[in-house]
């Protein structure tokens, strides 16, 4: 017999189920339950990271269907119904036997299946109609439990220790980006980073994050974030390029997430190769503006705030100060947000951007990342992770945001 590494408390998963059910009533009222397919969502709903199908009926017991791994799942998950299956066609009968039959209409995680598997699901579950359930899952995961917040606060404290204390002691001008990446990994691993992070958006990947020296910060990027980078190689455009040396008189932007017990925090730290007096006025002005934007957003990250209104205020501020060109990256790499939800994945609900009209909720966690690109020099700015509270955003990744000079 094996002892589990960790067993998620039953009350934790039951609370998550009830939040999903409440959101179904609002966003998919015709559905009789929710079906999830991605391993991340299955982990959040069950406590075990397995490929399979999770069925959450509005009334009745949830069921975790998996093709293999039932023994491990039983160690890690507090759920009573963990069932092995071979084909999607088995699911209706197995669900009925347990007493939680599939409903006529199901809210499905449509972004969780590739086209071929979705067609197979529909072919084998002919008595079921599927509605989109992705928004329900995103909103449910966006509000963190006390257990989740405790993990993220610990991750954030270690994240700050790594990027503001340990890494500046390890790196120096004259190193290439790849060498710097390895030293960031060293500091992270020593502090418990799990070595893996996840993205929710289909096709998006991440590995450590972005290490961008000098004009690498403005290098064209396909990643949906403001900081550019050359990366390891076109096949892995993350970490840093061995051919780019961090030179004196250049910024070094480290936008690297920290993962602990499955949860990530996000933080960017800018270093400067040289004395503070050598930082150009445009860089100081851009960084100071980003810190002010972050401070304003933190003050206004309260339940009831509207994300799109927060975003428009930031853009109006950039325009009024003559800093619109370069804010959130140089064109055409400019991104259309200033913050994003974070948790089990780097990208999550809510997003501080146009089109997001639902009010913020207490205990949502948002990474705020105002950045500023300077042609020919690179990128400055900040990013930190905040918890939405009635008194404003609680920063869990440190309280010092200025550029660190490395002589």
Automatic annotation (TrEMBL):
Domain Creatinase N-terminal: 16-142
Database matches in InterPro entries: Creatin/AminoP/Spt16_N (IPR029149), Creatinase/aminopeptidase-like (IPR036005), Creatinase_N (IPR000587), Pept_M24 (IPR000994), Peptidase_M24B (IPR050659)
Designated name of the protein: Peptidase M24
A Pfam family reported for this protein in Swiss-Prot or TrEMBL: Creatinase_N
Organism: Alkalidesulfovibrio alkalitolerans DSM 16529
Every Peptidase M24 domain range: 151-389
SUPFAM superfamilies named in the record: Creatinase/aminopeptidase (SSF55920), Creatinase/prolidase N-terminal domain (SSF53092)
Entry superkingdom: Bacteria
CDD domains attached to this UniProt entry: APP_MetAP
């Amino acid at each position: 017999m094996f002892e589990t590494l960790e067993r998620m408390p039953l009350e934790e998963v039951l609370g998550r189920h009830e939040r999903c059910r409440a959101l179904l009533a609002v966003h998919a009222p015709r559905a009789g339950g929710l079906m999830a397919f991605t391993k991340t969502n299955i982990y959040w709903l069950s406590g075990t990271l397995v490929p399979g199908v999770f069925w959450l009926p509005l009334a009745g017991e949830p069921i975790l269907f998996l093709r293999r791994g039932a023994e491990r799942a039983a160690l890690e998950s507090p759920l009573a119904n963990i069932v092995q299956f071979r084909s999607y066609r088995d699911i209706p009968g197995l669900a009925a036997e347990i007493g939680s039959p599939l409903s006529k209409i199901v809210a499905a995680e449509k972004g969780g299946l590739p086209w071929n598997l979705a067609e197979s699901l529909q072919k084998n579950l002919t008595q079921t109609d599927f509605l989109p359930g992705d928004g329900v899952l995103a909103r449910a995961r966006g509000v963190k439990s006390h257990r989740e917040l405790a993990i993220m606060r610990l991750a954030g404290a270690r994240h700050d220790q790594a990027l503001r204390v340990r890494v500046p002691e390890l790196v120096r001008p004259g190193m290439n980006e790849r060498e710097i990446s390895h030293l960031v990994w060293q500091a992270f691993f020593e502090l418990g980073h799990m070595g893996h992070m996840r993205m929710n958006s289909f096709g998006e990947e991440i590995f450590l994050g972005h290490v961008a020296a000098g004009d690498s910060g403005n290098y064209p990027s396909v990643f949906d974030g403001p900081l550019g980078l050359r990366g390891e190689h076109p096949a892995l455009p993350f970490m840093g390029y061995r051919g780019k040396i961090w030179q004196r008189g250049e910024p070094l932007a480290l936008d690297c997430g920290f993962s602990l017990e499955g949860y990530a925090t996000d933080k960017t730290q800018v270093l400067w190769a040289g004395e503070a007096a050598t930082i150009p006025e445009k860089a100081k002005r851009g960084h100071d503006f980003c810190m002010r934007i972050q401070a304003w957003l933190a003050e206004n990250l309260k339940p009831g705030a509207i994300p799109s209104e927060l975003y428009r205020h930031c853009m109006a501020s950039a325009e009024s100060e003559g800093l619109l060109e370069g804010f959130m990256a140089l064109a055409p790499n400019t991104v259309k947000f200033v913050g994003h939800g974070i948790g089990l994945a780097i990208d999550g609900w809510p997003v501080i951007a146009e089109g997001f009209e639902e009010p913020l909720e207490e205990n949502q966690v948002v990474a705020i990342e105002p950045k500023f690109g300077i042609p020919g020099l690179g990128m400055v700015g900040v990013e930190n992770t905040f918890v939405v509270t009635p008194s404003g955003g609680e920063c869990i990744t440190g309280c010092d945001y200025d550029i660190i000079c490395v002589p």
